[in-house]
Amino acid sequence: MTDVLAVAGSARRGGNSDAVLEAALDALRRRGANVQTIVPRRLSINPCSACNGCWETGYCVVKDDMQDLYVRFSEVDHVVVASPLYFTSLPGHLKVLIDRFQCFWVRTYRLGEPPQPRRTGMFLCVGAMAKELYFDCTLRIVRTWMASLNMGCPVTRFYSGVDEKDDLIKNHPEYLEDARAAALELLDGAHR
Ligand SMILES: Cc1cc2nc3c(=O)[nH]c(=O)nc-3n(C[C@H](O)[C@H](O)[C@H](O)COP(=O)(O)O)c2cc1C
Questions:
Q1: What pLDDT, on the 0 to 100 scale, is given for residue 191?
Q2: What is the CA radius of gyration of the chain?
Q3: Which of 20, 59, 78, 83 could pair with 9 as two cysteines, CB 3.0-4.6 Å apart?
Q4: CB distance 9 to ligand 1 below 6 Å
Q5: Among 183, 107, 178, 176, which Cα is nearest to 147's?
Q6: Distances in whole angstroms, Cα of residue 119 to Cα of each of 12, 60, 84
């Protein structure tokens, strides 16, 4: 069975990024995938303190919810991230989680450990503004993070023009259909 870890990046629940995420996850479940979702805002994750405690071992010395997430991110077949743009970037809770993957970067680039098996991820991004540049900046962050897991991010979508919590459902139902299609692209590996 295909295991998928979904990341609901927004600070608010039930909004636009959650809507496209749920559509994508529904498509994945219908194809038999085992899907689990994490919400960074609900977890106890401290920011990376740049203590370099991971330099010797490749393991983070900070004991919080990340210890469980390191295992889960390592074991799944796909990661699906849905997030709004916040100031041309990601919401703080999600960025804090991402920074804590520095220890994975250390394993590969400082300690020379063999990479994890190659896997793929997907990024669904929503924003109020139709500015591709904002999305491009954010996508670069997501791709750099996923690279630390030896994960490509070939399936990406930017759903613009949504701001109020129910904007997407009310005014852009076509985005939901597109998110489902994106999820199937990820499963089918059409991009490889
Ligand atoms: C702190 C903050 C910063 C934001 N910055 C941007 C931005 O830089 N570009 C943009 O297009 N939208 C920005 N927005 C709007 C959100 O991306 C938009 O409301 C989105 O639909 C929220 O998604 P959600 O419903 O999943 O939370 C920002 C919203 C907040 C709360």
A1: 60
A2: 16
A3: 83
A4: no
A5: 107
A6: 29, 22, 24
128 lines ligand 1 (CB under 6 A): yes
CB 85 near ligand 1, within 6 Å: yes
- CA dist 165 to 11, 129, 176, 177, 184, Å? 11, 15, 15, 18, 26
Number of domains present in the structure of the chain: 1
In sequence order, the 6+-apart residues with CB closer than 8 A to the CB of 178 are 157, 159
Under-70 pLDDT residues of the chain: 190-192
Whole-number pLDDT of residue 116: 87
- Taking the centre of ligand 1 as the mean of its atom positions, its distance from the CA of residue 135, in whole angstroms, is 11
Read off the pLDDT of residues 126-138 as tens digits, 9 standing for 90 and up.
Answer: 999 988 989 999 9
User: Residue 75 corresponds to which tokens in the numbers above?
Assistant: 């074991």
Q: What is the pLDDT of residue 190?
A: 62
Q: What is the DSSP string of 141-185?
A: HHHHHHHTTTEEEEEEEEE-S--STTHHHHH-HHHHHHHHHHHHH
Q: Residue 175: CB within 6 Å of ligand 1? A: no
pLDDT for the residue numbered 58: 97
pLDDT of residue 141: 98
